[in-house]
Every structure is written in structure tokens, then in C-alpha cells.
């Protein structure tokens, strides 16, 4: 053996170029594969393995280095608003106002931390990919079987495969024994794929579909085999997906972009106003430069909504909590709002739109079609019905023989629900599991049948034969074979048929009739199997050895028993969810690894497509399409079938180039690039791989498409609520700015009615909790009846600005200034120079502060609706707003009415007599009633415009149409 090893090493074939191999080696016969892959039947030598390891590198998924976490964190403290506030705090410190400096800097710290929390998402998709690759692998090197680390695998190594093994690299099969591989990590389809070593000359299938190739990250479901490694590490299909995923950068969400633009605009406006009023303070109020600067700083603080970012983040967090109750877990906060403006959902089929439980729907035998009720792998409650709806006779010999043959010619097993799993679990092929279930629905006990008709041998499914056979020896005597497979392939071998308990010859016309039935089932997207049997007699019944039972010997002169049609049924709630999406102006595009005909059937059944001739684009067709052709195709009803990972990514990118906001669903490793590229990636919580979950922004805990629609509804509500509390927090900007303008244009004769610390108390203290209450408003009626929000529809639009500044803001300013002058009048101003009387001046600023805070209490109720009366939705229906009012009132009491010297000194306030509280309490009610009057006028105006339009339409109608309308 040692001599042969040395000789092998000496004459070792050269290693092949890796990248060109997959398409080439699948076309080679086994005899030529060894040479093409630079190896021999006993494998490469250890010395050659070391040389190739140096050449190709470790068989691992390499991770690209991203931006260090510390830089991501620090970037939240260096944007325009942050820099502005850092400088403002520094200047306040130099000016001898350390409490103001600390307050301004704390604003920066709070905003930075919340922004980091909002934007941060750890890139763990690559780590999850690594976990799918095994640690060890069995190989043949130098004629010896070795167990070595998977990372040491090199091209040319011969892998030994058995049931349950995780595959470590891409390889070409050279030996197989009923080998089935679960490729769901790459294709998304859960059915095990039969693999065979034979060469593949077809050019109309993709690399992943090649039956003689196996791939890293997949699993051996059953059987054994031997394969030669052709690609390792990042050169594998698995590595290619990892590379695609890592190459995609995290894009800012629409809300993040809008908040960034809003921050820049508000900061620029605030600085401009500050500079302008600094100049005016010097020339009009004759202020000293330091005093003018502090005044200008107060104006900047008044116009910067310091609490905006924290409040937005908290509102998004509340949306996350509400979505969690509706089976949607949000990983990235900004994704909440992105859902609200989604225009297209690219969804896979299996498990999301369907139940991922193959179910027999029809049985055809003896010239009649039987319908099977019940869905899934639980046979209880299901039954088999005749065409007229009557239950079929369970003792019918034709039906029993058909279902017995189908049930015994299976390798799958069904495990009942357990403590670990509340659902039935399938071991093996889901298609075969469906056959076991339909047999149970007819009352057959397959365990007893297996005991009374024990299996002797199996002729496994082969992709060339497209069928499998099992040989049995009934206890009653004799031997028989059951065959199931593709209808055409099975029918071609049938010479007889069973009908009404009688076996008779089968004519060509009857074969054509059966195939016509098969075609009808196929048009409905059903997967159809034919079942046949053969009684083994004479020499065939008693071979010398069971190994002599070959397909050529057994699969001939068969008796046709019937057809069994099955489907992965749509989830019952999906059709209503799809209808809801269409009503909301959201388009749905199916992108699946399944066949086009099946995909079209499901899409039509649940309402995704309605046209008579939707376009079905396969992965092979997509390879040849230009970007322009793809965008044209995306304008019509279209389904994408049998697509590769980069092609799903291609479709998503094309939609985004068309200015669409795209949500993508997925569960497999193959979906991770598209999930990361999408504006909102949605992974399946039950069936999804860890890779898909890490790449996604949202995880569905019930794997249900309807939960996406619920999440979109919540997302729209979140954006509406963000706009409500943006309106609310901008109200106080005007009410805080007007007192300062009053001081300025009076030339300093009117002392500042509001201090900078009191402005900060309003922005960061009293406004925050009520604003959070607005962020928790439930979705308004009709939120899903409107189309998605336009990209041009900015958060801070003109109607919002006018309402915030010129309505709510001015009303609050009027209440605040009126209270200020009222208290001044009671104290004898202007005879007493209040600016020099510390306690008196503090009392007047305190009442201004109190009036603005109380007017904000009324405004928070008013901001809950645009036109609808708040009394109609329930004045006290939002508990968080009531909590906010309580918190707001408590803070007001601590700063103004209770004897707390520390807080009074910090915020320049003084205790007010309780008699003034009674006067102030009318302000929130006045605020609310004034706004109710405004809303009543708007509703009256809307009704009037609608009536005028109807009258105009009626005037222009022909006389006959008028009579019909009447």
C-alpha cells in the first residue's frame, strides 16, 4: 500500500481550474471525471492535498471586514445637528452657564445613543452561513479512508457520503446508491432531490439542478454515494451566495433618509434664525455680545426639536411591540416605517403562500374522479368523496388496491405531534408522506399491511426511469410488485388495467384518456403520480437471489391502478391578504424555485394574478434578458420560476431601479442576498435558516404571508403616527420662539418671558411622553384603502408646517404671552422693573412656561386626528396619552407649583400660588375646542366640495343617465 501511495503521489494528475468546472464535468461520463478533476480512484495523496491546500486555500467561508463598530457608534455624534449642539454647549460653558452646557450636551448624548440603536444591525449572516458547513468529512486519500476537518478539503478529494451527512463542498458524483439530497438551503424547495452519477447532456437546466452534482451546505437525506470535490470555499455555490450577501451594503431606509434631510433643514433654519437674531439683538435690543449670543442660542434651541430622534425611535419601538403580537418580529427599527411605504412584495411560494404540507386532493381510478378532503399530514377528519359529494366506499377493492400500492411503495415516515413539535413531522419525501395520509383517510392501517405484505426489495427512484418499485411477499402466498412514478413512464409499461374489481387489457385509447386526465390535473398545478402493480409468477417470482430483481425484469406487463394528484395547498387566509394588498395598491410578484405551471396555479388560486396569460419567466430565460427587457416584463403580470439566488437579486434590483419600495420573503440560504438587498427583507421564523433570519429585517413567527400584510398595515400606522407627533413637537417651537421675538422687538423693554432652560424642559421633558402616546395610536380605519405613500411625500410638508406654526404654535404662544402679561399686570408692571426683581421675574417666566405646557396638553388630543373629531374615536381611548398627560402635569407641578428649590434654581422658575392654577386649567380645554371648531369647518368644506362635484357631474350627464341615477 505504501508503494502504491508513493507512486500515486509521483504521477499525480494536475489540479484543474476550479471556476469552469461545474458546467463541464456534469457532461462527462464517470470514466473521464477522475482525469478531469485531477485525481484517481484511490484519491489524491496527502502530499498533493497539502500542495492544493496552499493553492486553493481553506475550505471556509471568508468574511469581509466591515466598518468597525466604534466608528458606526461615533458617526451618530458627528452629524450637522450634533456638531451644532456640541459647539453651543461649549460656548455656553465659556459664557459661564455650565447647567445649559450640560443640558445641551445631554441632548446630544441621548440623540446619539437612540440613533445608534435605531440604525445598528449586526452583520451575522456570514457567521450563520459558516454554521451550515460541517466540521468533519470522510474522504478517500491515497487509498485510505480518513476523517478530516472539512476546512482541509481540496479539489480532487473523494468524499464518502451516507444518510444524514452534511456536504462540505461542491462535487461530482461517481458512485450512487439511491442517493437523495436536501438542497433547500440553495433552492428553497424542501423535497429531497434524487442524485445519480450519470452524465448530464441537457443544457436547459441550471448548475444546481444537475442531478450528478452535489453542493456544499446541503444534506444527504437518504442513500450513499461517492463524489469528487470540484470546488471549495468561496468558489462553491454556497460561497458565491455568501459573497453576494457580503457585497451588499446596508441602505438607509426611506425614513432614515427623510429624517436625515429633515435634520439638515431644521438645523440650517435654526442656525440662520440664530445668526439673524444675534445681529438684531445687538442692534435693536442694544444687548451686549455675550447676552446677544445667549439669546441667539435660545432661538436655536427653540427651533431645534431636540426630542425628535428619541421620540421617533420610541414610536418605532412601540410599533415593533404591536407587530410582535401579530407574528412579525422586527430586527431593525427603521424597517417598521419602510413596511408602510412598500409598493411591491416579492414572495416565494412554498411555506409562505402555501402550507408546505403536500396533500392529496384527487384520486382517479376506474374512470371516475374522487375528491379528497382535509389538508396537511393529519388524516383525522379527512375523507374521500365521490363526484356527487357522497363518501366513497372505503371497502371498494379498486380504491383499496390503489392506496395500498401507493402506501407500501413509499420510504417516508410520519411522526405524530410531540412535546418538541406540535405538528406532524415528515421523515423523507413530503410527496410520499401525502400518500401515507390519503391511505389513512380511507381507513387503511399501513403498519398492519406492511406486516401482512412485507417488502423484500426496493428498486429506488431513478431520474431516468422516473419511477420506483417495491417487491413484496404476502403472507397469503405469492409475490407482487408495486410501481409508482411519472404517469407517462408508468402507463407506457402497463398492458392491463383494473376496473370495478376486474383486470382487463388496456388499449391505446384508454392510455390517451388517462393522460388527458393527467394533463387536466397538471393545468391546475397538481403533482400527479401513477400507481401500478404486477403479480410475479413463474421464474420471475422465484429468482436465485433478490438482487436479480432489476427494473428491466420487474417493470413490464404492469396493471394500471389509478392516478393520485396532490398539491401543497394555499394557506386559507392568504387570498384575503392578497386582496387587501391589491386594494392598498401593493403589487405581489411570485419568485419561486418550483415549476412555472405549479406557481401559476397557486398564484391564480389566491388572486396574485388575474389575467388569462401571465408571463412566466424561468431562470434560464432570465439569464439572457437585458435590464431594459426585465423592467418591461416587470410592468405586467409576471411569475419567476426556477430562479438562482443572483437572479432573485437581479429582479429586486430592477424593481428598485424602477423606484419601487420592495419587500422580499425568503427562508433559504439562497434567499439571503435578495433579503439583504431588499428595502425590507422578511424571513420565515419556523422554516427559515439562520442565514435568512440574519440577512432579513423582519422575521415571521408563523411563516404566513398574511402576517406581512398585517405588518404593512402597522407600518402605515407608524408613519401616520410619526407625522402626528412631529406636528405635536413642532407646535412648541413657535410658542417658545414668540416670547423671544417679543423681547427682541421691544428693544429689551419686555424681559424674556421664557428662559433657555425652560425651552429645553418643554422640548425634552414635558413633550416627550405625550408624543410617545401619539406614536402608539392604533391604525385608523381605511389605512389600507389608500395607495402606498409617495417618495415625494415628505414628512415635514407644507400643511404640517402651517398647522404646527401658524395654528397650534400661535395659539400656544398667545396663551403663554397672555398669561405672562396677566401676571405682570397683577404685580404692577411696568412700574416695577421685574428683570431686577429675581423672584417676581421667575414667577412671570413660570406662568408662561405653565401656560405653554397646559396648551400642549390640549394640543396632544387635537393632534390625534386630522379632520375627524377626537370625540368620535374616544377622547380617553389612548391610555398612553393619558399617562403622558399625568407625567406632564407632574413635571409641571415640580417645576412651578411645588416648593423644590433645586429644580427652581436649575430652570429659573419660582412657585406660583395655586389660585393661578385654576386660571390656567381652562387653557387645554380652550385649545381642544378651538381645534374641534377648525375640524368641523374642514369637514363642512369637504362635504360642500363633494356636493358641488356631484352636482356638476349630474348637470353634465345625458338625460337617460340622469333618470337612471335618480
From TrEMBL:
Polar residues composition-biased segments: 1-11
Pfam families: Cation_ATPase, Cation_ATPase_C, Cation_ATPase_N, E1-E2_ATPase, Hydrolase_3
Any one Gene Ontology molecular-function term assigned to this protein's record: ATP hydrolysis activity
Annotated InterPro entries: ATPase_P-typ_cation-transptr_C (IPR006068), ATPase_P-typ_cation-transptr_N (IPR004014), ATPase_P-typ_cyto_dom_N (IPR023299), ATPase_P-typ_P_site (IPR018303), ATPase_P-typ_TM_dom_sf (IPR023298), ATPase_P-typ_transduc_dom_A_sf (IPR008250), ATPase_P-type_domA (IPR059000), Cation_transp_ATPase_P-type (IPR050510)
Keywords per UniProt: ATP-binding, Cell membrane, Membrane, Nucleotide-binding, Translocase, Transmembrane, Transmembrane helix
TM region(s), chain numbering: 73-94, 100-117, 266-285, 291-317, 805-827, 839-860, 880-900, 912-930
Biological process annotations from GO: proton transmembrane transport
Domain spans labelled Cation-transporting P-type ATPase N-terminal: 24-97
PANTHER family registered for this protein in UniProt: CATION TRANSPORTING ATPASE, SODIUM/POTASSIUM-TRANSPORTING ATPASE SUBUNIT ALPHA
NCBIfam families xref list: ATPase_P-type
Name under which the protein is recorded: Cation-transporting P-type ATPase
Origin species: Faecalispora sporosphaeroides
